[in-house]
Design brief:
Blueprint (H helix, E strand, L loop, with lengths): L2 E7 L7 H11 L3 E6 L8 H5 L12 H10 L3 E6 L7 H11 L3 E4 L1 H4 L6 H13 L3 E3 L9 H10 L5 E3 L9 H9 L3 E4 L5 H11 L4 E2 L9 H9 L5 H15 L3
Parallel strand pairs: 1-2, 2-3, 3-4, 4-5, 5-6, 6-7, 7-8
Helix pairs in contact: 4-6
Length: 250
């Protein structure tokens, strides 16, 4: 089985559910784990990263992902919550009732610190609900790799997944966290091949999870990087499905 553990779905021409289903079927991917997309127009990503542009409407469309879950048996979902909202606990509880399997945070869209009250409240509740916390990191003091690692240390009963192998081409801080913390995992989407290969040499494959970052990247292209890793078939199965199945209690 192959599970794409990180895809963005949105009601857009470039990132809709129907296109995604078609692409993963062609790629031989069996299931996907979706989060809301289109809070940022990924076609203008450099403008957001450099601060040239700010998100126009950073409200996560969780209803679109909820509908994808209900109408496609091969899609799981993570609810995305803005930690600045006053009702984050209620939103997360509602997500649990609706069938979501984890929490997605977006510091690029929502401009928060991993040490904020909203984030720590959510991280604590995720431990109770069995929800993994997925987030990318950014080059800012409050949402750096170090801050995300500190959050994982603060809440050892909650599992944390850092997107894209961390920050930059080769985030050694993220790799070290995955090596030392039992609740810290690395997701591979848009990570470079060499960094992924060197990481599995150092850590093994029990902390590495395949994701595609659709629609920014093509699921088949991201999958090819994993298929070409110099690892055993059993190790490849860990990366492609076993690790995320364990975290989502599938």
């Amino acid at each position: 089985m192959i599970i794409d553990a990180h895809t963005h779905l949105s009601d857009t021409e470039y990132g809709n559910t129907e296109t995604y289903i078609k692409l993963i079927k062609e790629a031989g991917i069996d299931q996907g784990v979706a989060v809301p997309g289109a809070m940022l127009d990924v076609r203008k990503m450099t403008d957001y990263i450099t601060g040239k542009s700010k998100p126009d409407n950073p409200v996560p469309d969780n209803h679109y992902v909820e509908n994808a879950i209900k109408t496609n048996k091969n899609i799981q979902g993570f609810i995305c919550i803005n930690p600045h909202d006053k009702d984050v606990s209620e939103q997360l509880e509602n997500g649990l009732k609706l069938g979501f399997k984890g929490l997605k945070l977006s510091p690029l869209s929502h401009q928060f610190s991993f040490a904020s009250k909203g984030v720590t409240s959510l991280a604590s509740l995720c431990g109770e609900y069995g929800f993994p916390v997925y987030s990318h990191v950014v080059y800012s003091p409050g949402a750096s790799t170090a801050k995300f690692v500190q959050l994982a240390k603060q809440f050892p009963k909650t599992n944390f997944i850092i997107g894209h192998m961390g920050f930059g081409p080769a985030d050694q801080e993220a790799v070290e966290a995955a090596r030392t913390l039992p609740n810290f995992y690395l997701e591979t989407s848009t990570g470079n091949y060499l960094h992924i290969q060197e990481t599995v040499k150092k850590l093994g494959t029990s902390k590495v999870i395949f994701g595609s970052e659709y629609p920014l990247s093509h699921p088949a292209i991201e999958l090819e990087k994993i298929l070409r890793l110099q690892i055993t078939d059993n190790e490849r199965e860990q990366v492609l499905s076993k690790n995320i199945k364990h975290l989502l209690q599938m």
